Amino acid sequence: MPKSKVSPDHEVIAAHMSAVTVAFQMLVVCLQDKGALQPGQYPAALHGYMEMAKDKTDPMTLSMLDDLRQALLN
Predict the structure, then answer these.
(1) I want to staple 31 with a disulfide (CB 3.0 to 4.6 A). Which of 6, 8, 37, 57 is the partner?
(2) Torsion angle defined by CA atoms of residues 49, 52, 73 and 71, in that order, rounded to the nearest 10 degrees
(3) pLDDT tens for residues 29-54?
(4) What is the rounded average pLDDT of the residues 19-37?
């Protein structure tokens, strides 16, 4: 299956989201190592926020938060 051509703007957004995800993954690891955060605590908090704000938050923002939450669960 051939890859679709991605716009430069899309590439920048994807790269930014990847960098933010890795940064949060490393922050969570550091906080868990210090005992300041329990495994699954931050993804659960993101989920709680998403549920609370789903009617007043942009769907793209919710999608990006869900992507981050899923990455933190893995």
Answers:
(1) 37
(2) -70
(3) 999 999 999 999 999 999 999 999 99
(4) 95
Token look-up 């933010």 returns 20
Q: Which residues contact 31 (CB under 8 A, 6 or more apart)?
A: 37
Quote the CA–CA distance of 7 and 11 in Å, as a whole number: 6
Q: What DSSP string runs through 12-49?
A: HHHHHHHHHHHHHHHHHHHHHHTTSS-TTHHHHHHHHH
User: What is the distance between the alpha carbons of residues 29 and 69, in angstroms, rounded to a whole number?
Assistant: 14
How far is the C-alpha of 73 from the C-alpha of 26, rounded, in Å? 13
pTM: 0.78
Please report where in the chains the tokens 């999608």 appear, as a residue.
63
Residue 72, burial from CB neighbour count under 10 angstroms (0-12, 13-18, 19+): buried
